[in-house]
Amino acid sequence: MMRISLLIFTFLSFISTLSAQTVSTLTNDGAWCWFSDPRAIYTSNKNGQIVTGWVTKTGDILAASLDLKSGKVISKVLYTQLEIDDHDNPAFLQLPNNRILAQYTWHGGSKNGMGVIQNTTLQPWDITTFSDSLVFKPQTPALLEKFKRETYTYANPFMLSGENNKIFSFGRWVGFKPNLITSTDNGKTWSDPMVVITSKELNTNNRPYVKYYSDGKSRIHLIFTDGHPNAEPLNSVYYCYYEKGAFWRADGSKIANMDQLPFHPSDASIVYKATAETGKAWIFDIVPDRKGRPVVAYTRYPTNQQHQYYYAVWDGQKWNDNHLTDSGKWFPQTPEGKKEREENYSGGLTIDPLDPSVVYFSHEVNNVFEISKGETRDLGKSWKITPITRNSEFDNVRPVIPRYKKKGDKNVLLWMRNRKYVHYTDYDSDILWKILP
Prior knowledge:
Layout: H1 2-21, E1 23-27, E2 40-42, E3 49-55, E4 61-67, E5 73-79, E6 91-94, E7 100-105, E8 116-120, E9 134-136, H2 141-147, E10 153-160, E11 166-172, E12 178-183, E13 194-195, E14 210-214, E15 219-225, E16 237-243, E17 246-248, E18 254-257, E19 269-272, E20 280-288, E21 294-303, E22 306-314, E23 319-328, E24 349-351, E25 358-365, E26 368-375, E27 384-387, E28 395-400, E29 411-423, E30 426-436
Antiparallel strand pairs: 1-30, 2-3, 3-4, 4-5, 6-7, 7-8, 8-9, 10-11, 11-12, 12-13, 14-15, 15-16, 16-17, 16-19, 17-18, 20-21, 21-22, 22-23, 24-25, 25-26, 26-27, 28-29, 29-30
């Protein structure tokens, strides 16, 4: 009996070791925010390749290529000492010629620098050939006169093949509001910017937060809020999509043509209307299902210390909005005796773009943030939860499934692991990856 027990223990230890080996490190020095996306993409490289990027703890901006066959990681510095701020992570787009476009910004900007920064590889898929950085400011005197404030944070580039490969790039720019520019020549030149969403009474301290998802063909999905949950006591969640020169509600009714922009949050579809009892909200991911219907992952905050993950699915007539799990509180490590500056920094969620009934999320388990997988077959009413990480020494947060995942691609999850995260300007983090079953 003793020998059998020993054999079982040895076998389980071996399986545990194999499982542990499946978690690999992209970098020991990297962090990212979740509003500059896609921060990771699958490319069309036949070897199986993911391109991603991050900000180091000294403020360098890096791109990286992960070969899924060999596990080899190649990295390239795009910009040296931009600033120490995880908001500045690059977002990526594969162009029709298989070159890779990267875009990123300073966080708002200052006398040390302001604007959108762009690099493009000179060779297909080869991140070592990224060009020198090009800095530009999407603004016009007329737009600045109307919306008053000049600031540039985040970049979100997408291409629609159904519009002759036009690129749409979104960010929080002029007016402290979501802006849009377009390019018809692979990002060599850009249109004048337009403000997409604004408060009814112009408030240059109000900033709607937006998450985007593109099908790469004809449609770009948006979920967004009234503003920042620190500033908006009733921060609600809204949805719309761009298609064929206009923005539309979930039910297909038109909000505005491009030449009628901007619109107000309340003009779009309301996913979740915040109340004092149910709490303000913030957003994490948006993915369409196989029928093109939006699936949304977001957080509610009945209190700043009580973070609740929700999962909402549009069924063609209404939103099915269901609780996934309580995730704990914020993950920043608040200095003793200090008030937490980012009380609404949840661990984060990501939706599998090929199967939106699957989400991966970060939540507190035994006082450490761990990653779990959630699966639902009834629009979020019930969940099967499977651990991805457990018994970790450090917090695991901000998971992401790379965008443009195709049938047959290996199922890869990336996330941040924090040795230290006091603030978005004070961190010491890794970027990890794992191939999932």
